[in-house]
Amino acid sequence: MLRAVCNLRCSPNQTVNRSAEMPTRSKTGSRDKEKNTRWVVLLFNPATLVALVAFLAIVLWNRFETKIEPVVHRTIDSNRLKLTDQPPWISVNLVEAVIHENHLGDIRLGQQDCLERIAAALKVQPWIRSVVSIRKTAEAVFADVLFREPVGLVEFHDNTLVPVDEDAIVLEGGALAPEQASRYWRISIREPRTDGLGTGLKWNDLRISDAVAIARAWNGRQSSVGLMRIVNSGYPTGDRLRLQAFELWTAGGFVVCWGSAPGHELQGEADAETKIRALLEFVRAKGPLEKSGFTSIDVRDGTIRQYDAKLAGQNADFIMNLK
């Protein structure tokens, strides 16, 4: 019996069968491994990757075409160009003006030079001093800009008012809000030069540049003393030394002899801030200029003195028709 068990466990036939099975399993594993390797090589083949990306692109485009295409082809209009909030002294819609004047309606948000063309259009708009920044999203273009503000309105005898900013740049009179006009100096000079005059350009008249400098020095404080007009009756000469002294007038005709433009004072003449402080203190002490007991005053040396009545009246015929 023990021999039978031994013969059963150690049967030569069983040994041969086990030996035959082992190489069969090894060959099958090798074939599977080779098959997997071929798939990996095929998957990461450059041609396969290109084909796969192209296929995915087609699938995504077919799915989202209706959402993507309108963004690419959206054109600029007043709803898609956003500027810094417009100041109250400008009455026209600058966004619409910029689009219309520069034919921006044919620009698409998706085109490469979109921001460049819009920035260039904004920079030539006279009411815009500079473009601080500009950017775009899928919905609109956003521009942060600085605006120009008038410091004075140059008067003509036909009652035309032409606004100028602190650099004597000519602004569009029709775009100035009428209710804002009283905030700014009237600049009254004899026969203003108009050669080369144009909106967005600097006014080529020394008297206007000097008057603007006076207005800039006051920085809006003129209303507290009742002054509203800067006057110079001298003819254009191109030479400050030959210009007559500037006068400042109230609406009722009270005259303040001011003198020279800031930075161009004659010897012994006070600077602009000293003159302004003297006038502010005088009004605090005496009340409104027209009720001060004087008919005109001279502030050129930084103190308040009586102004010669004959000199004070020399410009009366020049501005008598101005409103």
Relevant terms:
323 residues, alpha/beta, Ubiquitin-like (UB roll), Rossmann fold, eight-stranded mixed sheet, 9 helices, 11 strands, elongated, disordered N terminus
Across the major sheet, the strand order is 5-4-6-7-8-9-10-11
Shape: elongated
Number of DSSP helices?
Answer: 9
C-alpha Rg (nearest Å)? 42 Å
- CATH-derived architecture of the largest domain: 3-Layer(aba) Sandwich
Distance, first to last CA: 143 Å
Count of discrete domains = 3
Largest sheet: 8 strands, mixed
CATH class (first level) name of the largest domain: Alpha Beta
CATH topology of the largest domain: Rossmann fold
Beta fraction of the residues? 15-25%
Sheet/helix structural class: alpha/beta
Which regions contain 5 or more consecutive residues with pLDDT less than 50? 1-23, 65-69
The number of distinct β-strands equals 11
Estimate percent helicity: 25-40%
Order of helices and strands: HHHEHHEEEEEHEEEHEEHH
